[in-house]
Amino acid sequence: MRRHSLVLLFLLAAGAPQAYGQQAADGLTEQQRLGRQVVAQACGVCHLPPARGAGTYGPALSKASGGGKDDLMRKIIQEGTPRMPAFRYFLQPAEIDAVIAYARTLPPPAPAPAVAR
Ligand code: HEC
Questions:
Q1: C-alpha span between 62 and 110 (Å, rounded)
Q2: For the chain, domain boundaries
Q3: Which of 11, 33, 47, 50 fits a 20 to 30 Å CA distance from 91?
Q4: Helices marked H in 16-107
Q5: What is the mean pLDDT of the chain?
Q6: How far is ligand 1, taken at its centre, from the CA of residue 94, in Å?
């Protein structure tokens, strides 16, 4: 019995690495990397799916966020929305700029699949 659960653990762990480990050849600038880090820390709880294909509370961040307009995206991040907190007092202007620069590297989300699996 015990051996079985160890094998299962190993199989689960073997599937995980792709999601991480891509830092070396990510092609991002220093600023975009900072933005990715800030997004993971401050925005991920609402904007990043906890698992592949899982839903999020807020819309996916991408080059289309804020209508693709940096000024509008900055305003949303600084002032928040009815369902999103304001980050004006939590993030430095340079961190917000980094988040925007990072989001601009992300493709807009694909339309939802027609058939749920
Ligand atoms: C508590 C959850 C929550 C957190 C944390 C959060 N957001 Fe949001 N965000 C939302 C929701 C929900 C919306 C959708 C707007 C609404 O319903 O009010 C949104 C909308 C946005 C939009 C506009 C989306 C679009 O498609 O134009 C941007 C940009 C955005 N968030 C960026 C961020 C960034 C950057 C952070 C981190 C610094 C962040 N959000 C943190 C919940 C959150």
A1: 11
A2: 28-103
A3: 50
A4: 30-38, 44-47, 70-79, 93-103
A5: 85
A6: 18
Per the structure block, which two tokens stand in for 38?
């800030």
Look-up of token digits 């199989």: 11
pLDDT band at residue 13 under the 50/70/90 scheme: low
Nearest CA to ligand 1 atom 19: 58
* Ligand 1 neighbours (beta carbon < 6 A): 42-43, 45-47, 57-59, 61, 65-66, 73, 76-77, 81-85, 87, 99
May I ask the CATH class of domain 28-103? mainly alpha
d(CA 70, CA 78): 12
